[in-house]
Amino acid sequence: MDTPTDQPIDYDNGPNEWSNEISSFYQNLNLDPDLYYCIDKLPRYARVVGFDYRINHISDPLTTQPPLKKYKLEDSKLPTQENTVQDNDKLNIAFKTDIQNLTSLSSQLEKEVGCQVSISNTILGLLRISNGKAKINSSNLYKTGKIIGFDLSSAIAAISLDVKPNDHVLDLCCAPGGKLLFIADKIHSHGAPHSLCSGSVTGVDISKKRLSTCQSLIKKSKSQSKIRIRLFASDGTTFNVPPPEDSWWDYSTLKQQSCKKLQPKEVPIDSISTPNIKPFFSSKLLRNIYTPPLEITADTRIRKYNKVLVDAECSHDGSLVHLSKYINSNSQSIFGKLDSDFLSQDRLESVSELQLDLILNGWNNLSTGGTLVYSTCSLSYKQNELVIAKFLETVFKNSSR
Ligand SMILES: C[S@@+](CC[C@H](N)C(=O)[O-])C[C@H]1O[C@@H](n2cnc3c(N)ncnc32)[C@H](O)[C@@H]1O
What we know:
The protein folds into two domains: 33-57 and 89-150, no CATH class; 160-257 and 276-292 and 300-400, 3-Layer(aba) Sandwich (Rossmann fold). It contains twelve helices and twelve strands. The chain has helices spanning 19-28, 85-113, 140-143, 152-159, 178-188, 208-220, 251-258, 284-287, 320-327, 334-343, 345-364, 385-398, and strands spanning 44-48, 54-55, 117-119, 123-124, 126-129, 147-149, 168-171, 200-205, 229-233, 281-282, 305-311, 366-375. Strand 7 (168-171), helix 5 and strand 8 (200-205) form a beta-alpha-beta unit. The longest helix is centred in the N-terminal third of the chain and has 29 residues, at 85-113. The chain is globular and about 55 Å long. The structure holds S-adenosylmethionine (SAM). The site of S-adenosylmethionine (SAM) has 19 residues, from helix 5 and strand 8. It comes from Smittium culicis. This is tRNA (Cytosine(34)-C(5))-methyltransferase.
């Protein structure tokens, strides 16, 4: 994990009235209460748009050679399967090019924001900006769509899905869409959709308001990866729309199969394979998906998602950014307000029930051999370990998978 800061913690100038409450809350969770004194000292992160994000296995990217066994290019970039000398050369060249690009972007950003910027040693494709308050949105790199602010923890959750270029990904609680766009960008870093890179991202959220924000984010994005995205305003605990066909991107096949002209806004629906639900937002190609009647069988629902992200609704108590809004609000009892808004017993009970229902439905939508990631920004046992324990108990009781 990247270290938050090299500077000593300034306890004297730390927050006062809320600190005891927060400290005891964290002590009860066996966490270091000093975390909260670090708020102003934490770095921030930006991701390089269109990068093939991956775990950074090396400590010093500038001096170390890539560990070739771990550093594998996706199949679409490297069709030869064996790690021949030639392949190793290609890996080395690709790796060096990536590092050169990241280094060049780091120095550009450093000049623009006036503080130290380095390549994240956790995830390749992220830049670590030493001053957490640096205004990256006024930099040219942001304005020209080359970088975008993104939390390291969000990147870790999304990268854990291990998304491949042909994966259909379901993001069950997607708004406002930071991880959704990150995943689409990762897939799209392998080029425009083609047979070896036909991945798509389906985002679902129950809140239309938050989905509108997500839609604006997608529209504002300068990345072409938006062609791979569709959004549904739906309850993630019951959502069951299958992923698009692998050939969704091939407009000519699509036309042949349908044997009729699709109107731009037409969404062909059949009762078995595509439940009657229109996307809230969709790229034109994904909107026109047509499932050929021949393939409609009782087991059409076997077509499921390769990867499912359940970034569940939660009490937000683990998000420093979220808590800092309370801290800055001059409230008398900030923790009390946080407690009533997010941590009250009633709310915690209902939120953990919702979390279990979400992860169970994520599982229902996951294909055999796929990967499901469950994440929250809470540190509470009830919303994390206990949800997972109940989930495992339920699925292993009821399933042969
Ligand atoms: C932690 S946020 C998701 C953040 C998002 N993944 C991102 O990276 O930007 C949780 C989201 O879950 C949504 N949500 C709450 N209940 C839901 C449900 N039953 N089905 C789907 N989404 C739900 C909320 O509207 C909220 O947008």
